[in-house]
Structure formats: C-alpha cells, structure tokens
Amino acid sequence: MEEITLLGEKIAYSREKLQFSKKELAEHMDVSVSTLSKYEKGISMPSVMPLYILSLIMDMPMETFVSDDFSLEEFKKMSAKTTSEMFIELHNDIVKGIF
Fold it and tell me: pLDDT, tens digit, for every residue of 20-61?
C-alpha cells in the first residue's frame, strides 16, 4: 500500500508541476478524472499506458514513478532534469563505482 501512496504523490506532484488541472491531466493520460483522483490518493494503481504517457509528458523514465528507490524528494529533484541528463548522471555514478 505504501508503494501505491508514493506513486500517487508522484503523480499529484507531476500534475502540479505541469500546472494541469485534474481534468487536463486525465485527458492526456486517457483516464477519467475520478480515476486520476484514485491514483493520486493511492487508492488504485495506473496501468502501464497512463504511466507511460505521464512519463513522456514529464520527460522522466517511467521507472522513477514506480520504483520505491526514488523518494518523493528525489523525484522532485529529478523532475528538474531531462531524461538525458538523468541517464548521464546515472552512467557517471556507475562508472565511478567501477573504477
């Protein structure tokens, strides 16, 4: 249940960052407003396609939404970067760990 709540917080944060109303984001994700509300409250979990669409809109890897490895605070920091910037940082961290 904690995983769904964290995912919901990330979805709600994304909507606020995008400055979308619930209706606007629901339309983009091809879900109803009530379904989006359930996602944000952690009552239900979105299927792959709405999450994929949100990840495209936010320019973030889908894994950052669904993984517990990324807290809400880390997610907020990451949302300020593009996907390419995130992958470069991740690559650099991996290389540093190897050498």
Answer: 999 999 999 999 999 999 999 999 999 999 999 999 999 888
pTM score of the predicted model: 0.81
Backbone φ and ψ for 61, nearest 5 degrees, come out as -60, 140
Q: At what angle do helices 22-29 and 2-18 cross, to 10 degrees?
A: 110
Give the pLDDT confidence score for residue 66 in this predicted structure.
92
∠ Cα 35 80 41 (to 5°)? 20
CA distance 34 to 20: 15
Q: What amino acid occupies position 70?
A: F
CA angle 2, 74, 65 (to 5 degrees): 55
Q: Burial letters for 74-88: b for 16+ Cβ neighbours within 10 Å, e otherwise?
A: ebeebbeeeeeebee
